[in-house]
Amino acid sequence: MPPELAAARDEEKHEDFRALQRQNGWRKTKGFMMARVFVTGSADGLGKMAADLLIKQGHQVVLHARSAARADETRKKVVGAEDVVVGDLSSIPETKSVADQVNRLGRFDAVIHNAGIGYRESKLEKTADGLPQLFAVNTLGPYLLTALITMPKRLVYLSSGMHYGAGSHLDDMLWERRRWNGSQAYAETKAASSIAARTSVGSPSERTSRPLP
User: Fold this and answer.
1) Domains along the sequence of the chain with CATH
2) Of 56, 112, 186, 209, which has the fewest Cβ atoms less than 10 A away?
3) 186 flagged as catalytic
4) Catalytic residue among 119, 143, 157, 186
5) Which is catalytic among the residues 48, 143, 157, 190?
6) Whole-number pLDDT of residue 103
7) Degrees (nearest 5) of the Cα angle 17, 22, 24?
């Protein structure tokens, strides 16, 4: 192909891309394409670290804290965040409220499901909904948010290598018939979350966000 035709073709591609940028509100910053990201459990730990890094790279980041008090602390600790949504993911009504708050802020390019409880739960703690707290936060929370938040371009689920040792206990995910084992319960919640993540694959145009009753 003559050089002048190749240059014209490349310029056409650039124009098409620039049109997409205008259409989607994208802009490039510091070598990255700027994105709008929601991070659950971003008051501390890995979630806060991810939010800090994304903000430094020039992305728009919405944070999440489980209470109003933690939200105020998070605003001070994570400088440059667009907003903070509030809700305890161990509660089904509050998880639905988090999804509503996120949807009111508009569409996101990515949702990072980071919020979670660790494996050192020495006894079975139940939520107000009557569910194991580990299951409510680590498995049901991300599932509900995925179903209720307007589908982003990308979903990110934080898992654990412990899910490889989870075994198959789909008949007793809520630990109603077994003696409690915190490590095993944690592994199972991460395995279930990984399964849920695999069901969320595909382009946004192939999936719709369906409210749950």
Assistant:
1) 34-198 (3.40.50.720)
2) 56
3) yes
4) 186
5) 190
6) 97
7) 90
* Helix, strand, coil percentages in the chain from 3-state DSSP, rounded to 5: 45, 15, 40
> Which residues lie closer than 8 Å to 35 by C-beta, 6 or more apart?
26, 59, 60, 109, 110
The separation between the first and the last C-alpha atoms of the chain, rounded to the nearest angstrom, is 59
Please compute Rg for the chain using Cα positions.
Answer: 20
- Which band of pLDDT confidence, cut at 50, 70 and 90, is reported for residue 107? very high
Positive or negative CA dihedral for 196, 156, 125, 68?
Answer: negative
Residue 19: count other Cβ atoms within 10 Å of its Cβ. Answer: 10
Residue position matching structure tokens 């898992």: 159
**Per-residue tokens: 197:** 């993540």
CB of 116 within 8 A of CB of 39?
Answer: no
